[in-house]
Amino acid sequence: MSLAKREALSHLDWLEAEAIHVLREVAGQCSNPVLLFSGGKDSICLLRLAEKAFRPARFPFPLLHVDTGHNYPEVVAFRDRRAAELGERLVVRSVEDSIRAGKVVLSHPLEPRNRHQSVTLLDAIAEFGFDACIGGARRDEEKARAKERIFSFRDEFGQWDPKHQRPELWSLYNARIHKGENIRAFPISNWTELDVWQYVAREGLELPSIYFAHRRPVVRRGAALMPVTELTPPRAGEVVEELSVRFRTVGDITCTAPVESTAATVEAIVAETAVTTVTERGATRLDDQTSDASMEQRKKEGYF
């Protein structure tokens, strides 16, 4: 590539090229990979990157969603529709199944279920024999994410050891594993939340409606806004307000909070994201704010 062409590439072009390279490395080195697709913005970007990496052929992997059973219906509906539009196989496994099988025991019925996805994911990996899971994690989401390599080795128990990670010098990735072990690959590891929104804008990607400003009943719980739903009713003394909000990230209803916002377009969200001083998960993922359910501990147990 000439120097002029290299200089003409935008930062999104570079990030896209790296992500496509990672996806092709997974497909080339792994015999039975799967792409984790929740219907959230990061995994939606992964689908577009997979299109660019492999179309006009079909993806060399199915899609997998580990559903908590408490996901926002708008996101679940979008997940199903997008997979159908692409003509790709979508496998759904639910934490509800793990609960019924006695593999997950909740402390109370409305306990957040994100931390229990590890059990269901590991069972799905064993059921289908997946040797690699492609995820949409980014390094700016949470401090434990920043420790992890793009190709993250997991042992036969699904565990991650941050002190014994494989080197990735010169963007060389090592996916060699023994039977029962697993690779987690993160093609957009070097992206930020702002990069994702800029890519959504550039590619004209459709997203679930709850990412955009809408009016919703909420209560103030500490520094967070909690949506009022059947799963998250107001507590004694809490005042229900109807505010203009949007979600920066989507997950289990019981631990995913919206932020107050009037940003109803991608362009407005890009502008809002560019000036925010609070991280995406720090502002809206309540399960990351408790020590017993920390992201690093969950990843050591087999989480994404």
Summarize the structure.
With 304 residues, this protein is of the alpha/beta class. It has helices spanning 3-8, 11-29, 41-54, 73-86, 95-100, 117-128, 143-147, 193-203, 266-275, 280-284, 295-300, and strands at residues 33-36, 63-67, 90-94, 132-134, 151-154, 182-185, 214-221, 224-227, 241-246, 259-260.
List keywords for this structure.
304 residues, alpha/beta, Rossmann fold, six-stranded mixed sheet, four-stranded antiparallel sheet, 10 strands, 36% helix, 15% strand
Structure write-up:
This protein is an alpha/beta fold and 304 residues long. It folds into two domains: 3-196 and 292-300, HUPs (Rossmann fold, 3-Layer(aba) Sandwich), CATH 3.40.50; 207-288, no CATH class. Helix content is 36%, strand content 15%. The chain has helices spanning 3-8, 11-29, 41-54, 73-86, 95-100, 117-128, 143-147, 193-203, 266-275, 280-284, 295-300; strands spanning 33-36, 63-67, 90-94, 132-134, 151-154, 182-185, 214-221, 224-227, 241-246, 259-260. The protein has a six-stranded mixed sheet with strand order 3-2-1-4-6-5, with helices on both faces. Strands 8-7-9-10 form a four-stranded antiparallel sheet, with no helix packed on it. Helix 2 (11-29) crosses helix 3 (41-54) and helix 3 (41-54) crosses helix 8 (193-203). The longest helix is centred in the first third of the chain and has 19 residues, at 11-29. The mean pLDDT is 90.
